């Protein structure tokens, strides 16, 4: 199991601090280096950090200081960014589903960039955020992502073309298209397929006299969990090549919205083994129950979508291992983390042992329930 | 669509109170009448309300006043019950997965009844809650439940027999067995099957001189969502008959742990339509996005497990309807409520319309995330 996510700083932090409940620690140096690596790999892109991945104020401030812009999913995230001194022009309201009152508030707060993917949303933006920049999200094929995006977001390319034209009549500024190939997307070829669909619209609209200035490539840059994933340099190279192939010298301004890539492997959760048991004497697989589960931070273990590397504190790497089923502490039977995937943990594992769940910096804290079964939400330190 | 869950009180409450965010209202009279109906249907049983279903203090106080005992999943729930004046002897620590520190605390607070399903847990209870009553959860077949319980809880009957015997040597008081046929269990015959497995152990242990005093039938009493479910009187009758069939005159003291049945149909959520859209002009199904989703209270819509009745405020029953896909407001594509099940909503539905999600009193508030995408957790009023 390849890990490499426990930085010296995180190791020292957990050595010096003990927690009664599961705790996530984020290495801000790693956040910054991830940002810089991505910026180097795709120098033509402006990076809009997807605040929803982890909205800890220290993460946002760290990224602000090194030049990030921000993609906000809600008015709460917009207000949080503004409260940290992030200028409104660096914030995009990227959710295609926005309440009317939230659009009004955002506009009053100075936000001038809005996503949409439907006629009703476009009408709302036109009347509540007049004159703003708008970009239309389109549906692209996203097979190959570990956490795929279904059809919840985006419209057909035909509809996108019509709505961008309409936005002009509504007094808005159509700046381009956005798409998302799915979070943790590991098939580089998907970018190429998507860009082919996208370029057709840019070409069509140009022929009608409308120059779209911007192309939003979304997120989907992967964090290395257990499986091998291509390096970010490989990603950047392939993306640049695909952009060159489809747009040539007329490439629009590129925006990317990474979340997981920036914070995923910058975080490690320390948790505790609550119980090790067998359902009957003959069973080889032990059940290992942790004090963290689906409802207290590990929602992305649903359907075993994300397979975090797990290590046991104080156990040598050559400890004798055996197969386990991993589950959370709640009385809910859905709260099973890994049953099919063959996790191996030490044979002498017992109640009270501390474990580390690696690469858990993204989509953990805010997914926590407020207190399902009375268990507290996941706490977090940024160091 | 049969509903019948919007009581006059709830209707008046929502007519008089307006909320910017989704809001759950609980009719305490309905909570009390559900409790009384269950008590009448199964008069031989002591009712331990499953606090996890909805831990609102007013619900707990209401149930305390009419004679309920309480099943707690965590030390937090135990402390909450005690803070409301519920005596320790009326509280059972029903989670089979307990931290050592939590067992110690519970014992100090006077809790003397503990669930277990494994040797390690039994050892922990013996050393940290010496002399306490213990009951062993066994695995029973639970096909037919809408929200089934997998194999996370319970051990084999062979193991249960051995552990109950062992508990005596450890200085504990083995009081019996517990099992759970799955929440929202609608096949009455499952109770009969389970009791057959259970009775064998009572008989065996009696032959070894150990009289188990208690039998915990768990929960699983259903709330009527969309589908027809048997009445609680039918349930009670079948259960009583099954107990009589298997235990005859030697029936142990019966405990039940209802959660959903007590609070499910006592609650209604009022939420708002944020967006109505189509992905392309030809699509018949509209996408309807609400300001509540999987991560803000409707976790039981995962895999469309629970199908809540939904109505639109201010629309006549004979409004023209059309098929919809229902989704939550977050940027997460998993946050789709109903895509396969054919929900029908008015053809003139639009952003800003208020909707009611019925029978949502159980497993909603505490499942809410602390703030995924910046959306606030579900708030609740008890009236």
UniProtKB/TrEMBL annotation, chains A, B:
It catalyses: L-ornithine + H(+) = putrescine + CO2. InterPro entries: Ala_racemase/Decarboxylase_C (IPR009006), De-COase2_CS (IPR022657), De-COase2_N (IPR022644), De-COase2_pyr-phos_BS (IPR022653), Orn/DAP/Arg_de-COase (IPR000183), Orn_de-COase (IPR002433), PLP-binding_barrel (IPR029066). Transmembrane segments: none annotated. The active site is at 331 (proton donor). GO terms for cellular component: cytoplasm. Its cofactor is pyridoxal 5'-phosphate. GO terms for biological process: putrescine biosynthetic process from arginine, via ornithine. Pathway: Amine and polyamine biosynthesis; putrescine biosynthesis via L-ornithine pathway; putrescine from L-ornithine: step 1/1. This is ornithine decarboxylase.
